[in-house]
Amino acid sequence: DGQPAQPGFELVFDEWCTVTLEFDGIVNVFNNKSAAESGERALTIVDIANWGSESEHVYIRDIRIYTEDENGDVDKEVSIVFNKPGVIKEELEALIAEGDDIVAHADWYLQDTRWTQFINALATAKQRYEDPNATQSQVDNAAQTLRSTIDSLNPVKTAFADLAPATVEYQHGKEFKGEPNLVWGTAPDETKAFKLAKHNDGFSFKLNKNVFRGNEKVYLIIEAWWPADKAYAAEDAGGSGTRVWAEWNPGPNFNLPNGESRRFIWSIDTPETTTGVQTGKWVNLVGELTGSQLNPGARIDVKFWAAGNEDGPGDDYVLVRKVVLSTTAAPPDVDFAKLDAAIANGEAKLASAGIAKYCDLSVNNLKGAVADGKTIRNTATAQVPVDAAEAKINAALVETTAMRLKGDIDGDGLVKIDDARVLLQHLVGKKLITDMISLSAAKVDLAQTNLTVGDARVLLQFIVGKVTAL
User: Fold this and answer.
1) What is the pLDDT of residues 366-397, one digit of tens each?
2) H and E: helices and strands count for the chain
3) Residue 435 class from Cβ within 10 Å (0-12 exposed, 13-18 middle, 19+ buried)?
């Protein structure tokens, strides 16, 4: 009757709640001035939040008007559901993608408390993104926390010259220019590398951008192989002997300016001025610098000093496959044993007499996995890509799922009449074969490029023994 309803409830804040008003008569509910003027009945809901502070507000997402019968069941109902404003998650989605990329390159960052905070924030962000009931405030808070933890990460700054493929790069996108001009050599483990054989053989490289801070400790790490079967002259007090040495910011002809000592020396023996190395294996030759010594344009020379200076025996040499500048003392140890075993298994499979019985896609996938594994074997500096390469080869070796027999269309490891039935159903369009490995297994008629009735004919001839091999 024009009087405001008196709700018998307490307001609940910051969550959805249901407010129910019960009327004894429907006529009075719908009679109001605007409805009378239009000849219609209407229910007016007035938002009175603006009577107070402008910051006050209330959201209404749906309205139900219904009647109940004598049993309390809904008799008639009218519902109005307003479009619920969508929670904006684009920023959070982009940050999650950025976070996943960081996780994929975890070895670029120090695994400290900040890393743990980032991992926790990324997990929370993913939960909020997947939660259909997450509020905008929760999504925004998750995005802000994730952004903050990403920005606080401590990167492991590592610039490296990967000498095996003769390319030079910096992990975080800054240019690291190298100028190798060397001959190829091959280590006993078949790793491709540069061979330093003549006196003063070597290479120079420089950082063209300011990668490291001035007071930052930086390690120069040279991955080298000293063959065990060569004659190396011992380092003596006069500075003669077989060695690898490095110096930075050298002047013309590699003379140090102003007599400054900026040189590292590694040799077989270990006199007071040098660091000894082992032969017959890849070793890290490590020297310590500071960021101020690696200003943009600073050049680093890595050279080989033949035994007895220019009068050495001539058959001693050192192989170098990588040079690293890093804020970590040495690259993490990488275990190649499982990858080596996977490569060996893959190569043995490809070389076996039975390889001809497998479909082309299986064979090509295995060849590609082995080739990629060899590339990773020669270039990887972290465990993650090594493990991934091993898993890829092993997956390509799995029988039936990856190594599929020619004619084994249904993937059960046998070639039988069921496979011919599947192929015929595909050819007549009754049930198409959609996965690539099954399509490759079905291609048994080498006279045709596409799948045809000829493949079905050859397959049936093989099943009944008329053809002995596919």
Assistant:
1) 999 999 999 888 777 677 788 889 999 999 99
2) 11, 15
3) exposed
